[in-house]
Request: fold
Amino acid sequence: MRRGICPKCGQANIRCARNCSYWHGASTTGEMRVRVTPQPLSTEVSSLVDTYVCVSCGYFEQYLMSAEAIHAIAANWTYCPPQPTT
Ligand SMILES: [Zn+2]
Reply:
């Protein structure tokens, strides 16, 4: 989607907003929180978020921009293994 093509409908009609929101998640439980101030609590990881929207079908994707937040998630959240398709 970041390459300009919608993975759902195939249209090249994507809009993006960089750093448009702020994500906070508890570093150990993965509980997601919405806060109105940009300062995270000590138990949280946080990241600016880039959002991509397909204006043909409405599908959207969001990406955490903080490598530190992604690293904390990789270290603490439950691994989701690939599932065979039938
Ligand atoms: Zn689409």
Q: What stands out?
A: The CA atoms of residues 39 and 46 lie 9 Å apart. Residues 67-76 form the longest helix (10 residues).
